[in-house]
Amino acid sequence: MKTSELKELIQIFNEAGLSKLAIKNQAEEITLEKQITIAKQLPPAAESTKPVQPASKAVSENQLVVKAPFIGTFYAAPQPQAQPFVQVGDQVKKGQQLGIIEAMKMMNEIKAPAAGRIVELQAANGTAVEYDQPLFLIQK
Question: Which domains does the chain have, with CATH numbers?
């Protein structure tokens, strides 16, 4: 790996707020790891101003929440001007692509874990998503 590529990887690692990243291929193996320490309590004025998401409705037994498997940017369509992969009311098959999460300059497909109907889209196109954040609600 070139030095410039390694510097870019370290920058992405730091910006993503990761604590550990391991990359391995046939030629090389790289592990980046940060020691996490618990910081002092911040004063109230310095706390995050990130808006709190409203509590989602209770999910019934025949509904399935599709969550983000990692942090990144969520895209509902393959290209900016293209139609979204799915919309509310669409029937989906198991394994059908629902969206994309871009993480570390890689596009990762989000697929339906089961067949059903899209009841709710819980992430907006082009927005940052957190690990385990609900993206879709599917009625089985």
Answer: 3-38 (no CATH), 63-139 (2.40.50.100)
